[in-house]
Structure formats: structure tokens, C-alpha cells
Amino acid sequence: MYFNRNLKKVHFLLSILFIFLYSCSALFKAPTGYQSSTLGEVTPYTKLLKTLPEPKEKTVVAVYKFKDQTGQYKASENISNWSTAIPQGTTSILLKALEDSKWFTTIERENISDLLNERQIIKSTRQEYVALQNQTSAQKSSATPLPPLLFAGVIIEGGIVSYDTNIMTGGAGARYFGIGASSQYRQDRISVYLRAVSTNNGKILKTIYTSKTILSQSLSGSFFRYVDPERLLEAEIGVTKNEPVHLAVKEAIEKAVFSLVLEGVKDGLWESEASNKKVIDSLITNQKTEEEINDNFRVDNRIMADKRGSFAIRGGLQSNTIKGDYVNAKAKVGFNIGAKLFINKSFNIDASWSDFYLENSGIFKRKFNSLDFNLEYILMPSDNISPYAYGGVGLIGSSYSYFNNIKTKINAGVGVEYMPLPKFGLRLYGEYDFGMNDDWDNFVNGKRNDNLFRVGFSLNYYFGKPKN
């Protein structure tokens, strides 16, 4: 009895320790104390904008409005929520990004009426002051005119055009004897369009499109246990982490401005200092590489690209088990080699040769060879991981008297291929061969023909130009 009580106590303490450690990183940094105000947070592109090389001459630009065009409100399960999902001060974020780049001289246009009113007040005040001076003295003077307003050569327009929620959601959890933990995540995405318009002729000089994901994560642990027939212990702990929408919007806008500078240099809209040409050329090259990757980038974070050539060779090991008239069939490891010819991205013709033993313990054992021809279909040819299926015909015979004892069979199999590198594929598959004869094991019995079950692993190497 004493031992059981101690065991319960140990179990209880370990459970509490597990729950505590599960979220200890958040608990140790829990924002429970006073936090003073600070300067605004920066994003990776804030630093890139501030380190851009100097331009040959700054371009005067105006931003009249850069607004949330989604019209979307924050999601709420129980009540109507009239708060917008996107921050409404996006014009200020864009102006700050243009200023940080040091490539543009920004002028006030969002609240131009306030500026004109203030200039009118200054003008009226100066005129009244000069008139009062003229009344008290014989001097004749006029009010000093205000300098003219700057006019923009380029107008920056656009906005946030989409806020897509729950693009990807998921989670995992486990519970055992009342002790459990779970993890959940959700991914949203915002999209930003930015365009530069010439005030000289109204021509759209350049349009930039950027996007940014917003990740939300939740971790939790729980304990639910009867520690005594009349006492129940229940405890929960957890932490939720949401990426700020403001920072996501800021990063997407800064990325758009960064790209606008580089695209403008590439198209000759503005120039950099001659001494900075190599740095700018390097940034443009990196930008082009990113564009090529994004051309094949899918919304679920998969890169769609041609990874297989028009030809392939392969080799691997496989386990072979006979399904015949005898009992106690053993799986015997053999090897196979083969080649593929692609018809298009998804379909290919496969030919392979295998060497293996078939055995029933203590009854039958013989070495065989097989020659197989299959038509294969790859379900997701542009993904790194793809299932596939195949079917065809083959010839099988004993390697001791192959040409005198050839049998036919029908092949069918499924598998999955993982490509860690372009042109290299790792495959795991299962195959069932339906024999057309009942004498593979030299024994004819009943109406069922002899069959063969295979499980294999192979390495594929692809070469040649990919099929379109």
C-alpha cells in the first residue's frame, strides 16, 4: 500500500513537470510585467531598404492613397465584429518605406487640403502684417511669397487587394491516461499591388505584386486524473502565438518598394551611382532568381517544377514472396535494374530485370529471373513527393532453365517517390504479380495460379530534357 501511494505521487509530480515544461519557453517570457513604449519593430526588408545603394538622383513621388481594398472584417465566431482585418494606415506605412529606401523624395498628397489651408493661413497672416506696417510707416513693402509646392514626376498607387484566411490549417495531439498535449496552426495570406504612374503622360511605368503569410500557432497541455477515489485533479496550460497583421502588411509593402527600386533600375526608370552598379546588379540577379522560384511556387508552400528528365535508369532491392500451393512462404531479398522512357510528365514506360529466390521453408527453394514491362502513372509529377501506380505484363522463369520454363504474369503496383534533389528519386513500392500458371513451385494443386508479392526500394536517376 505504501509503495502504491508513493508511485501515485511520483506519477503526479512527473505529470505536472511534463505539462510545465511543455510550455516553459512561453512561461519564462510571459508578458506580465510593465513594458515601456519603444520604437516600432522592423522587418527583414526594413534593413534591406535602408542599406540600398544611393541613387544618382532622387525621384519625387506622390502617394494620394494606398488603402485596404479587401473590405474584410476580423473573423468572429459569436458576435458581429466591425473591426477591419487590415490596418487602415497603410499609406503611412508606404510613405515610410519610400523614405527608408532613400531613392525617393516623398511629398504630401494624402491630406493636401490641410496643407493648402495652412499655406493660405500663412499667406493671409503675412499680408495683414505687411498692411499694418504700412499704416504706421511710410515704407511700402509686400508680403514675402511662399515657395512653390513640389510637384511629383511619379505617382505611387495600389493597395492591399486580398486577405485570405485559413489557407492552411492543421494540428496534432495525443492523450494518455488523462495526460495530453496538442498543437494547432493556421496560415493566412495578404497580397499587395504597387504601381508607379508617370504624371507626364499617365503611363503605368511598373506594377509590383507581393504577398506575405501570417502564421498563428497554439500549444496546450492538460492533465485530468483521479488522484483519489473522491478527488479529481485537472490542470491546463497553453500558449498562443499570432504573427501581427501590421508587421505582415509592413513587410509586404517594404518588399514591394524594394522590388520597385530594382525593377526601375533594370528598366531605366531611375539610375544608381556608377560606383554602386555592381551591388545593384547583384541585387537584380537575386531578384530574378526569386522570380523564377516563385513562378513554380504554389500557395501551399510547394514548389512546382520539372524534376524528371525524359529518361531514367534505376536499381534497387526488393523482397519477393511466393503465393503458391505450399505453406510457410519466406520473403527473399533480390535485386532489380531497369530503365524508363517518359511519354509526358505523368506517364512513362518502364522495363526492368530482376534476380531473386522464391522459397517455402523446408519444401521449395529456387532462383528466378523476371523481365517486366509496365505503364506507370505519376500522380503529382511536379512535387517533391508523389504517389504513383503502374501495371503491365512480365515473364518469369527459373534461372537454371530460363529459356525452357518461361511463364507469363500480370503486374500491378503502387508506391511513393521522394526527390531530395533534382534528377534523383528514392522509391518505396509494393507490387502483386498475378501468375498465368500454377507450376512456379513445381506443384499443381487446385484452381488458383501461383502469384508473387513484392516490396521494394529503388534509386532512380533522371536525365534528358523534361517532357512538356
UniProtKB/TrEMBL annotation:
<dbReference type="GO" id="GO:0030288">
    <property type="term" value="C:outer membrane-bounded periplasmic space"/>
</dbReference>
<keyword id="KW-0449">Lipoprotein</keyword>
<keyword id="KW-0564">Palmitate</keyword>
<keyword id="KW-0732">Signal</keyword>
<feature type="signal peptide">
    <location>
        <begin position="1"/>
        <end position="28"/>
    </location>
</feature>
<dbReference type="Pfam" id="PF13505">
    <property type="entry name" value="OMP_b-brl"/>
</dbReference>
<dbReference type="InterPro" id="IPR011250">
    <property type="entry name" value="OMP/PagP_B-barrel"/>
</dbReference>
<dbReference type="InterPro" id="IPR027385">
    <property type="entry name" value="Beta-barrel_OMP"/>
</dbReference>
<keyword id="KW-1003">Cell membrane</keyword>
<protein>
    <submittedName>
        <fullName>Curli production assembly/transport component CsgG</fullName>
    </submittedName>
</protein>
<feature type="domain" description="Outer membrane protein beta-barrel">
    <location>
        <begin position="306"/>
        <end position="441"/>
    </location>
</feature>
<dbReference type="Pfam" id="PF03783">
    <property type="entry name" value="CsgG"/>
</dbReference>
<dbReference type="InterPro" id="IPR005534">
    <property type="entry name" value="Curli_assmbl/transp-comp_CsgG"/>
</dbReference>
<keyword id="KW-0472">Membrane</keyword>
